[in-house]
Amino acid sequence: MPRIEEWHPALRAALVLAAFFSVAGTARAADPPAPRVTCASKPGERHYCPADTSKGVVLAESSGKAPCLLGQTWGYDQKGVWVTEGCSATFVLGRPDPGAAQTSEEQTPEEKKKFLEYLPSVGFRVYESDKGQIYFRLFSYLRYLNQKGFDPTYVDYFGTTKSVQVREDVQLNKVFLPFSGWFLDPKFRYYLWFWTSNAAAGEGGQVVGGGSLSYVFNEYVTLGGGLGALPTVRSNENQFPYWLGVDDRTMADEFFRGSYTMGVWVRGKLPSSLSYAVMVGNNLSNLGISAAQLSTGLNTQSFQLAWTPTTGEFGYLGAFGDYEQHQKVATRLGAHYTHSREDAQNQSNPNAVDNSQTRLGDGNIVFTRDLFGPGISVDRVTYEMASVDAGIKYNGFALEAEYYWRRLSNFAGPGTGSIADIEDHGYQVQASAMVVPKVVQVYLGGSEVRGPYGNSSEIRAGANWYVKHERGIRVNAEWIHLKKCPTGYTALPLSVGANGDVYHVNFEVGF
Questions:
Q1: Same-domain status, 65 and 17
Q2: Of 452, 407, 445, nearest to 429 (Cα)?
Q3: Which residue in 355, 121, 139 sits closest to 247, CA to CA?
Q4: Cα–Cα distance for residue pair 36/33, rounded to 1 Å
Q5: How would you classify residue 204: left for phi > 0, otherwise alpha for psi between -120 and 50, otherwise beta?
Q6: What element of type H or E holds 255?
Q7: Over the Cα atoms of the chain, what is R_g?
C-alpha cells in the first residue's frame, strides 16, 4: 500500500479536510449545553429563581397544570426568573445555538410532543427557535337558538309599537383564529386574530381581523396597542371564552359595557395582589366602522383595578365559576370607569354584530333622529360608565356580582338643549357549582337595568358538560326569561324589546 505522501494531492487534501471537520464536529459535540433553570409555583403564590438572564430567557417546557404565559404567570428581570399562579417550567438561559438545533427527523417522538406543547387559551406551539415563537388557536361553536317564546311586538317609552326579532335556527355562530408569540425578543409579543360572526353574514362587522402588539417590561408593566377590549366591566378583562355561558353575557352586562376599539394600553400587576389596566382609544366600538368615520382625537379613556386579597388569584384568567376547585377561599374586588365622547358619525349599524353602546333603557339608540321630538337630533353625547364587582370561590362553588352606573350627558345637536342627563343603573348576579368536578357545572343568574326610559330584567339557568373532563370541549344548555330587554343583536340569544323565554344549546370547541 503506498505511503500517504505518495497519494494524489487531491486525496491528501480530502483527508486533511475530513480530519478537520471530524475534529470540529467533536468539539461541537463537546460544547456544554445551554444552561437551564427550573422554577415552580403554586396557585396563589409567586416564586423567584435567581439566574443569569443577561442573554435572554426562553421557556423550554412547562410541567405544571397551570399555563405559563409570559408577562402574566412568568417573566424575568436582570437577576432571575419569576413564576406565579401555578406556573412551573424549565427555562433556557441565553439564546439557543441554531447550529445545535435538531431537525424534525432527528427528534424523538417525545421531543416532537414537547415541540407541540398545548396551553389552554393559548393553543398549540407550532414553531419555536432562537428567532421567535408561534402559537395557533381555534375557537368555534354550533348553536341551536329558539326565540319563539318572545312576544312579537313591544311598545317603547315614546309609545311606538315595534317588532321583535324572533328566530329559530342552527348556526356555526363564530370562528375565531388567533396567532400569538414573539419575534427576535421574547418580550416583543404579538397577538393577531381573525373572527367571523356567521349569524350576521353580510353585516359590516361580520368578518374582523385585529389584534395587538406589545412589549412586556416585567410583571408590573406591559405596554400594548391595537384592537382590544375596553376594560369597562369584568367580562372585558380578557377571560373570553371562559364565561358561564357560551359567548354570552348577561343582559345588563351587554347593555352597559364598552366594546372593542383601537387604542393603546398599559396593564400589569401591583403589590398587595392588585392588578390594573389603563386604555386610551378611538371610541366605544371600532367594529364595523372605517377610520374616515372617526371624529378627531382619542376620545375614550378606560380604567380597571382588581384586588384578590386572600389567594392572590381568582382562577385562570380570573374567569367566572370555580372550575379549578379552590381548596382555599378565593376572593376578588374590582372597579372600572370609562369616559367617552361619542359622535353620531362613528356609530355602526345598531343591529349588527358591533352593537351600539348608547341605547336608552327602552332599546332605542340616542342618535336616532327625531327620537326625543320633531327636529331633535343628537350629534354628540358624553358617555360615562362605572362598575364595581365582587366574587368568592371555594371548592367548586362561586358567587359573583357586579353593579353598573351609566350617565349620558352634554348632548349636542339641533334641539338637544331640552334633553336632561340620563342615568341608568343595573346589576348582575351569577352563582355556579361544579356538581361533578371537571365534568358538570350548573349555574343561575339574573340582571336588571333601571332608568328614566325603561326598566328591564332577566333570569337565567344553565349547565355545562365538559366532555373530555377539561376546558376546550363543552356542551352548554341555557334558558333565559326576559322582560323588556333593552339590548341584543344577531350574535346573541337576546333581542331588543324581547319579553318571554329563549332557549339555546351550544357545542363549543376551543383550544
A1: no
A2: 445
A3: 139
A4: 9
A5: alpha
A6: helix 251-256
A7: 27
At 100, phi and psi to the nearest 5?
-95, 0
Stated as kind and residue range, the H or E segment containing 9 is helix 9-30
Helix, strand, coil fractions of the chain, as percent rounded to 5 = 10, 50, 40
The residue assigned the cell 360615562 is: 384
Q: For residue 406, give the C-alpha cell.
A: 351609566
| Cα–Cα distance for residue pair 478/475, rounded to 1 Å | 10
Q: What's phi and psi for 321, nearest 5 deg?
A: 85, 155
Q: Contact, 301 vs 265, CB < 8 A? A: no
Task: Specify the number of domains making up the chain.
Answer: 3
Grid coordinates representing 69 are 404565559
Phi, psi of 388 (to 5 degrees): -130, 145
For residue 202, pLDDT beyond 70: no
**Residues whose CB falls within 8 Å of the CB of residue 445, separated by 6 or more in sequence, listed in order:** 244, 250, 428, 429, 430, 431, 459, 460, 461, 462
Asked if residues 126 and 116 have their Cβ atoms less than 8 Å apart, the reply is yes
In 3D space, the residue among 24, 52, 138, 39 whose CA is nearest the CA of residue 89 turns out to be: 39
- Amino acid identity for residue 171 in this structure: Q
Identify the CA nearest to 368 among candidates 351, 354, 383: 351
Cα–Cα dist 388/239, whole Å:
17
Query: Do the domain assignments include residue 502?
Result: yes
Are 23 and 67 in a shared domain? no
Q: pTM (2 decimals)?
A: 0.81
Question: Do 193 and 325 belong together in one domain?
Answer: yes
- The per-residue pLDDT for range 133-179, each reduced to its tens digit, is 899 999 999 999 999 999 999 999 999 999 999 999 999 989 999 99
Please state, in angstroms and rounded to a whole number, the distance separating the CA atoms of residues 159 and 179: 49
**pLDDT tens per residue, range 381-427:** 999 999 999 999 999 999 999 999 999 999 999 999 999 999 999 99
The continuous run of DSSP H or E covering 254 comes out as helix 251-256
Please check whether residues 312 and 197 belong to one and the same domain: yes
Same domain, 57 and 142: no
The answer to whether residues 94 and 162 belong to one domain is no
What DSSP letter does each residue of 104-171 carry, written as one string? TTTS-HHHHHHHT-EETTTEEEEEE-SSEEEEE--EEEEEEEEEEEE-SEEE-TTS-EEE----EEEE
Domain range holding 475? Answer: 135-510
